[in-house]
TrEMBL record, chains A, B:
<keyword id="KW-1208">Phospholipid metabolism</keyword>
<dbReference type="GO" id="GO:0006633">
    <property type="term" value="P:fatty acid biosynthetic process"/>
</dbReference>
<dbReference type="GO" id="GO:0005737">
    <property type="term" value="C:cytoplasm"/>
</dbReference>
<keyword id="KW-0963">Cytoplasm</keyword>
<dbReference type="GO" id="GO:0043811">
    <property type="term" value="F:phosphate:acyl-[acyl carrier protein] acyltransferase activity"/>
</dbReference>
<dbReference type="GO" id="GO:0008654">
    <property type="term" value="P:phospholipid biosynthetic process"/>
</dbReference>
<keyword id="KW-0808">Transferase</keyword>
<keyword id="KW-0444">Lipid biosynthesis</keyword>
<comment type="similarity">
    <text>Belongs to the PlsX family.</text>
</comment>
<keyword id="KW-0012">Acyltransferase</keyword>
<comment type="function">
    <text>Catalyzes the reversible formation of acyl-phosphate (acyl-PO(4)) from acyl-[acyl-carrier-protein] (acyl-ACP). This enzyme utilizes acyl-ACP as fatty acyl donor, but not acyl-CoA.</text>
</comment>
<comment type="pathway">
    <text>Lipid metabolism; phospholipid metabolism.</text>
</comment>
<keyword id="KW-0443">Lipid metabolism</keyword>
<protein>
    <recommendedName>
        <fullName>Phosphate acyltransferase</fullName>
        <ecNumber>2.3.1.274</ecNumber>
    </recommendedName>
</protein>
<keyword id="KW-0594">Phospholipid biosynthesis</keyword>
<dbReference type="InterPro" id="IPR012281">
    <property type="entry name" value="Phospholipid_synth_PlsX-like"/>
</dbReference>
<dbReference type="Pfam" id="PF02504">
    <property type="entry name" value="FA_synthesis"/>
</dbReference>
Length: 330, 330
């Protein structure tokens, strides 16, 4: 197994990326191609201990930032770590690609360079969504803002395949984000999608309302990229604002400070449950090769876990299963 | 000032509704028409102390439930408390109407019986949205699931007028729910709406992402009814699931139980901040007379506060300001 890693993407690149790669190589016995500015990456690597034949550097002199226009950057910054990495993936030099860089550029690059699986109309961004019952997969988390019912159906099928095979969720339950539980509820898009999902052979459990999303009743949460992005960001925003409220409440007086101290292990646990770093990265679904987006503020732990997830993504042959499923439908 | 109250709507009708009405009459020196089954309402009223000439009962033998189809129920259940109450409002018997009953039916009834303000294309449901900085107004919270840019612009204008005049927010900041801060971000609907809002004379602060919604940076949060409903319900769901997590963490062992005990006053405060009952009801915006939707599980306090809000809605002449604003535009 050989994984290609964007060494220059994300807020903490390259040092945390390199550290995460070294941890992954030591822990999982894999090979890695680290893409980025050779001299900088090399300097970071000299600080670490690892089997030297397991990590090779692929030089790329440029970097795509969050300020770049995603599609333009993919076409013009040809020597960026992301473009060079994705091209290496497309040429079969590795089994998967992971980047903590620009989400939009990774998606655009996945589509332009690696391309979509035949029969797949749109590739989707996903997010591992922490819930009261573990994690769910949210598809689409922001790639496709204007969707047709058929796209959402494909998101549901791909998400279902991923959760079943990579996350070991048996017969994953698929829910459609909607404004009511009944079939008749929703806008034009969700009403038509409901009909398609009802007739499909996935385990469709019906509509899930906003209130139900954090409960974890659905293993796969399906929405168009606009709604999915609002769901993702609002969830983060609510967690942040409630914990901010708690924090200032804890510091209110001596009594509350002691109370908070006594609760420290429990609060730490809850924080960990909501920590994106524990869940690795988010798979892109619908491209011809496995691609994982790591969180922009990924540290070494997040990168290490993201690489593990990418390994499963590749090993479990998700792409092939999606391909087979698509050819069955056509 | 005379307020018409649906005595039979909501989970705790009629007893809590009647109690809330009595509190409002005693506290605010207003008159109330209580609509519902005469004998039942009368029986509840005999339990209470109030100036008897201030509350009159308007008999209505039927009730619209959440199981009824909203539009059908409004047309067919002609002797329901909601229809009788809205007709009384339309005939000028009172200055405003409040109900804790079916949201859909109240909206349908508002449109069919009271009708839209001239020039207003769609009436909107709103919600008082608690944030880190007080409250914001979310428009539309679920009435119009497929929207045109012009509808959203009218929601923004009406919400702005309401926040300025009823909630005393000076030059209220209006934000458009979107998936990115930049003007170029979003789906077709939000991109076109951005352009309309930019050219309008409200205090448009641009797009707000999901993460920013709970921060309270915008006084008026504008979205189509599908997205607005997801925002509202997900916010509730996140609050519930985080507090559930905290609760079970607090009970984990003796040490954590003591910690929770020490924090009790602070936790109570946070709970109160998120308590819908403190904020009264949600105004319907766009109908010819003031209508307020109280929460389905409203108790006496929520009804009392909802009536206060409805009084402000009527007293501040919001409908007239909206009408003038619309005639200026045409």
């Amino acid at each position: 197994m050989k994984i290609i890693v964007d060494g220059m993407g994300g807020d903490n690149a390259p040092s945390e990326i390199v550290k995460g790669v070294v941890d992954a190589v030591n822990d999982f016995n894999i090979e890695v191609i680290l893409v980025g500015k050779e001299d900088i990456i090399e300097k970071e690597l000299t600080k670490c201990k690892y089997p030297e034949d397991k990590i090779e550097i692929l030089n790329a002199t440029d970097v795509i930032t969050n300020e770049d226009d995603p599609s333009l950057a993919i076409r013009r910054k040809r020597d960026s770590s992301m473009v060079v990495g994705l091209k290496a993936l497309n040429e079969g030099l590795g089994d998967g690609f992971i980047s903590a860089g620009s989400t939009g550029a990774l998606l655009a690059g996945g589509l332009f360079i690696v391309k979509r699986i035949e029969g797949i109309e749109r590739a989707a961004l996903t997010t591992i969504y922490p819930t009261g019952k573990g994690v769910s997969l949210l598809v689409d988390a922001g790639a496709n803002v204007d969707c047709k019912p058929e796209y959402l159906k494909q998101f549901a099928v791909m998400g279902s395949i991923y959760m079943e095979n990579v996350m070991d969720r048996n017969n994953p339950k698929v829910g459609l984000v909607n404004i009511g539980a009944e079939e008749s509820k929703g806008n034009q898009l969700t009403k038509e999608t409901f009909n398609l999902l009802k007739k499909s052979d996935i385990n469709f459990i019906g509509n899930i309302e906003g209130r139900e999303i954090p409960s974890g009743n659905a293993d796969v949460i399906v929405a168009d990229g606009f709604v999915g992005n609002i769901v993702l960001k609002l969830t983060e925003g609510m967690a942040i604002s409630i914990f901010d409220l708690l924090k200032s409440a804890f510091y209110e007086n001596t009594k509350s400070k002691i109370g908070a101290l006594l609760l420290k292990p429990q609060l730490k646990n809850i924080n960990k449950m909501m920590d994106y770093r524990e869940y690795g990265g988010a798979p892109l679904l619908g491209t011809k090769m496995p691609i994982v987006k790591a969180h922009g503020s990924s540290d070494a732990l997040a990168i290490r876990n993201g690489i593990k997830q990418l390994m499963d993504f590749a090993e479990k042959d998700i792409i092939k299963i999606i391909e087979e499923n698509m050819s069955l439908k056509n």
